[in-house]
Amino acid sequence: MSALISDEVTSADMANLPLPESYRGAVVRDDEVDMFEGMTTAEKDPAKSIHLQDIPTPEPGLGEVLVAVMASAVNYNTVWSAIFEPLPTFAFLRRYGRTSELAARHDQPFHVIGSDMSGVVLRTGPGVTHWRPGDRVVAHCLSVELEAPDGHNDTMLDPAQRIWGFETNYGGLAELALVKANQLMPKPEHLSWEEAAASGLVNSTAYRQLVSGNGGGMKQGDNVLIWGAAGGLGSYATQLVLNGGGVPVCVVSNERRAEQVRSMGADLVIDRSAEGYRFWKDEHTQDPGEWKRFGARIRELTGGEDVDIVFEHPGRETFGASVYVTRKGGSIITCASTSGYMHEYDNRYLWMSLKRIIGSHFANYREAWEANRLIAKGRIHPTLSEVYPLTETGQAARDVHRNAHSGKVGVLCLAPEEGLGVRDHELRARHETAINRFRNR
Ligand code: NAP
Predict the structure, then answer these.
(1) Is the pTM here over 0.90, yes or no?
(2) Residue 388 Cβ < 6 Å to ligand 1
(3) 408 lines ligand 1 (CB under 6 A)
C-alpha cells in the first residue's frame, strides 16, 4: 500500500511488487439473478445482490493493464447490474467469453462490476508501450477491438464495443482492475483519488451527447434543457453547457438540488416536484396540457425562447414533453431510459417542426480523452457528494437507485482514507470551492 502512495517508488519497484493471488471485488453472482423475481424495479435492493468476494488475480494479456484501484464510483449501470435489469449482465459476459481465448476469462459465475476508477499501473501486458508500472491513471470505460472497419472513424461504432465493468468482467469497484491499455488516461493531479475516479463515465457521456458533433454539437448561446441537472450525468452536462457559452435550463426535484445547480452558475432552474408536472394522466395516456405548461415555464425563464437541445435520459416519463418543448429545428439527444424504454411522443411536433432525435452512448476514445482533459485543466469539476468504503458498495448503489444522492457517489478501494493523491496543490487551491460544492459534509 505504501508503495502505491509514495512519491519515491520507481517504475521498476512497482514492476517488481509481487502480485497477490487474489483481491477483493464488489460482485453480483450468476446464481442470484432470480433473487428479485416478482418485485417491482423500485423494490429491488442493490445492497442485497452486491457482495464483496475474493477474485483470482487475472494476468494482463496482450494490450491489457492491471491497475491497483485507489478509488471508484457508482454509476447507474452499477444499479442495472445489481437489480439484473433489463437483463442479467452474465448474458454479456457469456457472449464476450465466446469470442476468444483471452475473452473467455470474463465468463465467470461472478461479475466484478464498476465502470470508473483511479489508480496506479501495476503490470502491463505484452505490447503495451504507452503506460508503465507506477503511472497514476484514470480509466474510461470504452472497450473495443477495432478489427472491423466500422469503428475506425468513431470507436463507439466498433461492432465489438463494450462498456468495461458492465459488459466485461474485472471492473473498477475492486482493489485491482483489468483494462485495455487504451482505456487509460492521466489522472488529473489536482484531485484526490476519489475525486479523480468520479467523472470518467458521466463526463465523457455528457461530452459526446452535448458537445461533440456526434451528439448535439452545442454552440455558444444555445438553450439546453437538462433533466436531472444535479444527478450524475446532469451535473456534468450543466457544467459543459456553461463552459461552452450555452444557457442551461436545469430540471431538478428539490430545493437542495436547485441550490446545487445554482452554485455551478446555472440561473434557470425548474423544480419539477414543486411545480407538480404530470406528463402522464395514467399508465397509457399522456397529457399534452402538461407539456404546454412545461414549455410555457421554459419560455418564462428564457425570456420567450424555446430550447435548442434537450439532454434526455429519464425516457418514457419525460420524452413526450422533451419532443414538444424543443424549438423548431432543434435536437433531442437521448442516452438512456431510466423510467422505461418504450417511449411515446406526438410525431407531428417532430416532423412539422423539423426536429431531430439523436441516440448517444458513452463516448469514443477521443471524446473521452477530451472530456478528461477538461477535468485535468480545472474547467469541469467532479460533483462527488458521498464516499463509501468498498465494503459498503451495496449501500452506495442503493442510494443511487433510490435517487437519494446528488452528483456522484464515490467508493474508496485501496485508498485508506479520503483526500489522498493530490499532487498539483496550486491548481487545486484555485478550484477548491468548486471541487467541493456537492460534498455532504
Ligand atoms: P442519476 O445520478 O441517478 O441522475 C439521474 C437524475 O435524473 C436524477 O438526479 C433525477 O433528478 C432525474 N430523474 C430520475 N428519474 C426521473 C424522472 N422520472 N423524470 C425526470 N427526472 C428524473 O443517474 P445518471 O448517472 O445521471 O444516469 C441517468 C441515466 O442515464 C441512467 O439510466 C443511466 O443508466 C443512463 N446513462 C447512460 C449512459 C450511456 O452511455 N448511454 C451513460 C451514463 C448514464 P431529479 O429527481 O432531481 O429531477
Answers:
(1) yes
(2) no
(3) no
